User: Which sequence fits this backbone?
């Protein structure tokens, strides 16, 4: 995969751990965005090619809702990552045809397999 990866993650340790691992494998990672505003700014300022999206952000925002807005603006491949996997969220996320829906803690090997498809 070529081009920047946008990471949307509000848990700082998880976010920077993923940034570190991805960068060490040659991926260009745009900072961990923690809210919709940062996501939209990143989309405006970078040629994002894929998004790794946390579903439940600590400020109350919902990653699936943000992903729906992204798809209206610029359809992009999305990988959802979450510790929450209630049925309603899964159904709503599936409507966006994500590349994957990964449970937290994210298995990095599994994430790499999805990114390298």
Assistant:
């Amino acid at each position: 995969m070529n081009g920047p990866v946008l990471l949307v993650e509000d848990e700082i340790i998880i976010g920077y751990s993923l940034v570190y691992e991805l960068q060490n494998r040659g991926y260009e990672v745009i900072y961990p965005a923690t809210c919709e505003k940062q996501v939209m700014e990143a989309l405006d300022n970078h040629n994002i090619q894929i998004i790794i999206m946390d579903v439940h952000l600590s400020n109350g925002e919902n990653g699936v809702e943000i992903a729906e807005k992204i798809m209206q603006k610029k359809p992009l491949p999305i990988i959802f990552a979450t510790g929450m996997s209630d049925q309603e969220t899964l159904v709503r996320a599936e409507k966006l045809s994500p590349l994957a829906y990964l449970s937290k803690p994210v298995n990095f090997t599994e994430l790499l397999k999805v990114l390298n498809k």
The longest strand covers residues 29-33. DSSP finds five helices and five strands in the chain. Helices lie at 12-24, 36-45, 63-73, 87-94, 108-115. The beta strands are 5-8, 29-33, 50-54, 78-82, 100-103.
